[in-house]
Amino acid sequence: MSGVILAVVEHPASALQTLATARGLADLMGSARINVLVTRAAPESTIMPTEEILTWRQQTNLPDREQARVTALRKAFDAWAATMRPSTIAAEWIDVEGPADTLVGEWGRRADFLVLSRPSPHDSAADQLEMQAALYDTDRPVLVVPPGPVSPFGDCVAIAWRDDKRTIRSVLAALRLLSQAREVHMLAGVHAGAPVPGLPDILTEHGIAATLHVLPVGPRVGPEARPGTGAGAFGETLLAKAHAIGADLLVMGAYTHSPWHELLLGGVTRYMLAHADLPVLMRH
Predict the structure, then answer these.
(1) What 3-state DSSP class applies to 65?
(2) Which of 28-42, 137-151, 223-237 has the lowest mean pLDDT?
(3) Is the peptide bond before 149 cis (omega within 30 degrees of 0)?
(4) Which of 27, 33, 126, 162 is a good FRET partner for 258, with 20 to 30 A between their CA atoms?
(5) Which among 40, 35, 28, 161 is positioned nearest to 99, based on CA atoms?
């Protein structure tokens, strides 16, 4: 059965990486329709909190800037789409004006997967909201694209394992890809003195052979917490281990909202969104 991928492209500098990653995901799926979404900001969205009206200059300049950006994105799309024919993969260009996060939520809920570039510290608030909408409003798995050249992925897959519903949902989303992987590795963070987990039933029941790797996790919270053992440090450990085993794709749950999860696990999500240099498949 063919699937649907929503690839969100916003910046010409990263468009080809996002599109190439969407194509790689479609290849792993066997066949797919790739909807390529470009959102245009409406002029009224640029009004600052200290302003009361949309100035003439804003009304004039924004459409010109947006058109130049979209034209560059369309050029990248056309060049990329031309390389896929003949193919079992169809590509559709979607150019819509409106709030980016709202549009990502609406279109994302109709897709099987979303593909977005990893946010950078210099991205606008709208770009950050797009990623939040993709992860937390669509109820769909999101493949986060790192900056730089795109390499093939899906041959050696690492799973950041935690026995909770978000990780299980991320693994369920990845099952379509894991069946084609040459190697699957489970990276489990374990606190000192805690029992070492076995391979999860979700993998064995689906016939996925995996290798278990136990990663030490420092104290959870409190005055006894040692420097370098927090969520950010574990994110660094997790990413380093993924590289050490040669992983080309990392699968993990995405966490937010709950103060407890935000402290212990949301930090790992934030770390990956800031530092991951390999594709990361996340699901909330």
Answers:
(1) helix
(2) 223-237
(3) no
(4) 126
(5) 40
